[in-house]
């Protein structure tokens, strides 16, 4: 049996520039955040509920919202949000009351038990992935400066 020659090695790539560099940086961030640093399953396991429910609690921890506002921030439709809130009410994590400014709508308010679950989820989500923790301080400082600039531009 004859051996086939090894595949040709690719030509060295020149570093990308402009839009190609931005696309590569975005791809790397997506891998880091959504594949390696994705904590949604860990949050669901720790809280005993879907990530969307804990996301709702984290939003409500900042203050009460109408059912419509909650649906908007969660990017869900109102019927699904209503079911989600029903479940959170049954768990004792939120309360639903009539909106005195518009009696047709409901206000959703987090309970103390809901705040505890939201805080637990936030602690998990706030834990940086190991790849980030292992960076040298000067790289972390540069990354922090760049990330702060990017989020400030929203």
From TrEMBL:
Region entry Disordered, spans: 1-21
Residues covered by the HTH marR-type domain: 22-152
Chain intervals with Pro residues compositional bias:
1-18
Share an example GO biological-process annotation for this protein.
Answer: response to stress
Q: Which domain of life is it from?
A: Bacteria
* Pfam families xref list: MarR_2
MF (Gene Ontology): DNA-binding transcription factor activity
Position of the signal peptide: none
Give the transmembrane region(s). Answer: none
Q: What is this protein called?
A: MarR family transcriptional regulator
């Amino acid at each position: 049996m004859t051996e086939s020659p090894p595949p040709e090695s690719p030509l060295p790539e020149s570093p990308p520039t402009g839009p190609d560099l931005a696309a590569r940086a975005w791809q790397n961030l997506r891998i880091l955040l959504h594949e390696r640093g994705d904590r949604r399953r860990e949050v669901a396991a720790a809280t005993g509920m879907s990530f969307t429910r804990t996301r709702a609690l984290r939003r409500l921890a900042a203050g009460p919202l109408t059912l419509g506002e909650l649906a908007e921030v969660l990017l869900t439709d109102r019927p699904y949000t209503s079911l989600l809130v029903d479940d959170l009410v049954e768990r004792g994590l939120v309360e639903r009351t009539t909106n005195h400014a518009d009696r047709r709508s409901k206000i959703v308010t987090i309970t103390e038990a809901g705040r505890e679950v939201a805080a637990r989820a936030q602690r998990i989500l706030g834990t940086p992935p190991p790849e980030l923790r292992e960076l040298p301080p000067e790289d972390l400082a540069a990354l922090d400066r760049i990330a702060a600039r990017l989020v400030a531009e929203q």
